[in-house]
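Lecture 7, part B: from sequences to assemblies.

Below are the input chains for today's worked example.
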Amino acid sequence: MKRHVIIGNGTAAVGCIEGIRSVNREDAITVVSKENHSVYSRPLISYYLEGKTDTERMRYRDENFYSENRCDVRYGVTVDKIDTASGECVLSSGERIPFDDVCVAAGSTPFVPPMEGLDTVPKRFGFMTLDDALSLEKELTPKTRVLIVGAGLIGLKCAEGIRDRVGSIIVCDLADRVLSSILDSECAAIVQKHLESNGISFLLSDSVAKFDGCTAYMKSGASVAFDVLVLAVGVRANIGLVKDLGGTVNRGIVVDTAMETSIPGVYAAGDCAEGYDASLGANRVLAILPNAYLQGRTAGINMAGGDEKFTNGIPMNSIGFFGLHIMSAGTYDGEMSEEKADGILKRFFVRDDHLRGYILIGETGRAGIYTALVREQTPLSEIDFEAAKKIAGSAIFSADVRRKKFGGAV
Amino acid sequence: MKRVYVNEEWCLGCHLCEYNCAWANSGIRFMTDALKGRKIFPRIHVEGDDKITFAVSCRHCEDPLCIKSCIAGAIRKEDGVVKINRNKCVGCLTCVLVCPYGALSPAEDGIMQKCELCLTKSFGEPACVKGCPNHAIVYEERGGME
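Predicted structure of the full complex, as structure tokens:
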């Protein structure tokens, strides 16, 4: 029987637990949870504020998940140090938990750039955890003026979630477009226009020079009066525990396809890890929920003595704002071709007979077929890619391929 | 386990499977009351081009990517059947983003629904299969990959 310690209690931790238990029931599992909550779906915090879910339905797994999986969970504590010499994790409470191996699933921390006068702002929030959302909720009134710093996925989902509960929302970003991590300029312009028509205002290519109480003085010279400030600039992977051990770290904790770090017996998964991106052909942080689960599960299987590799992770996102759905996947590398119709824009990026990435706005049906082309690196010469660009569907494959897909157990 | 399998060479593209699915899941007694004059949101869809047609529904994969990717933890597998808890789903469409078969689409309310093989109903087999005039979809036990 082995003793596993999982540092973190989010999606990657659940993947790790379920990975271990897919191999055996006997190993001991201790989960160290910084938050005082059993695992919940973090990406749902904006839907919570929007009234589309509640804290009960936000549970990522059933209430009895930990007991059914024989996990010992320590809430409200963190790991200060992984002591590989003694084989113990040292907790913030002073407790030492012995381990045979450990999975760092510690996620990320909001990055707050130095901004003059930030500490003079009376009501300021991050938007990452359930507690962030619950604190923010208390300050929302129909008259509240909200300034959101950061027009990325987190900032914009926050804007959508609170729109009907506040007076006004202004989003600012240093970038010249919204969702700059997943959209190019033209796609971003469509999404921005849609958000603006739904009451969200933007100050782009601009940043806060100075806060003075409830006023933000922008670099452009504009000033913004607000009641509530939300900081959604970005996140940084929590790499400290492995860095302290002398393990290889970059923007995230570098892992191989088994999810093991450069320190034997120390694994990492989820937003803190930098794993293999098949669309890029190199490692990078893939801070998305499906990846967190898949990496965690891979780590867990290997920790329990199985043999699992995660070789086809790619960046991918499905995100909607006020009824407009946007999907993207892979790397925007290669020759771009597009399909346009009223309210619809689809862009495909092809290099060396492979679909490397795509962006879809307004028409997302059966997009998983595109995602699989990217993930599996399907040679485009084997399918009818011209037809595929117009409409995603399995008619693009040969009859033989379809027979396998729809004629056998998969 | 039994699954729905496709015989595309026999599919006429008549869309009856879609109508039977929407009717079976409507809870309404008569087909016309359930379907006539309404936009339907079936859990099986006829696809194809000018040469071939075939009906696609959930494959109930051995290793379902939708379950691992669902941001709400709303999809699970019970006795081999991939099921969705519509009460937890928020309609983010991540399952649509990842399903390599293109087998999932949302209900009228934007929340996901999916083929659960009509197991809670009393037909003994999925309504789409039962109503197919040509055995272009069948419900049976088959081995692994062909």
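Note for the exam: Chain B has two domains: 1-57+125-140, 62-114. Keep this in mind when comparing with the next example.
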